[in-house]
């Protein structure tokens, strides 16, 4: 291994360490800032304990000036009013310097600590702006892609492509009796923990993902309709609504994206209402079966407006 190879390896390692430090810089700056604030309090406390001595020294010096003035008035020595002013100014200046020396370290550490906390906030704010912009672009592209699929192939195909599909056998009443029919529908396994990566909003309302799910299909239908109406009323009353708040209404677990995205009343991208994607016209086969009371579970896809903080 020659010198150039060793140099390149060392450069890469150093660059990687710098990158790792930059990645964790908000945490490092915040931790340093907090530690600095604590240190500032300790230093300031210690300085305060010594402040009495400084003030006592200044007070003693002022007493000496008074004594010298009394002696001068008695005619023993010459001590003019101008001399008094100069001495008093000297005492105040010295006292101010001594106080600055006492509190100087605490002030310096405090300023540096505030700078670290501010730096941490600035870095995180810039990263959040970048993430929001990236999310907005991704969301726009995905919605445009879905619209093209729906226009070309229909809503059922869109659901199948997004969530996958499985074939199921269902019983159908006919004039000749009950017959078995094979149908395709969304795969519930793709939504078990909302980890399929196919949708960051859609969730399946079933016994696994919701504590409010019941075995009676019509109960689930009425419950979802009532919660959708309540969400619309809450949006009107508050002016905004987070997706996690809707998840709470439905007895579902919160998500990271749910604390950022949601609805804004009269926002630039607002539909003006909350829609669970069940009772729309032209719904998928599974949605129609749920609405008709033939299915107990259904996929919910929410018409969120986007990142709330970016819409206000």
Describe this structure as you would to a colleague.
The protein has 2 domains: 3-150, no CATH class; 192-310, no CATH class. Helices cover 60% and strands 11% of the residues. The chain has helices spanning 3-23, 25-73, 81-153, 155-163, 217-238, 243-249, 285-291; strands at residues 165-174, 177-186, 203-205, 240-242, 261-264, 298-300, 306-307. Strands 4-5-7 form a 3-stranded antiparallel beta sheet. It is elongated and about 135 Å long. 18% of the residues are buried.
User: Quick one: how many beta strands?
Assistant: 7
The whole-angstrom Rg is: 36 Å
Oligomer: single chain
Strand content: 5-15%
Q: What is the CA-CA span between the terminal residues?
A: 59 Å
Query: Biggest β-sheet, characterized?
Result: 3 strands, antiparallel
Count of helical segments? 7
Report strand order across the widest sheet: 4-5-7
**Helix and strand pattern:** HHHHEEEHEHEHEE
Question: What's the mean pLDDT score?
Answer: 78
Number of domains: 2
Morphology: elongated
Poorly predicted regions are 190-198
> Which structural class best describes the helix and strand composition?
mainly alpha
Helix fraction, binned, reads 55-70%
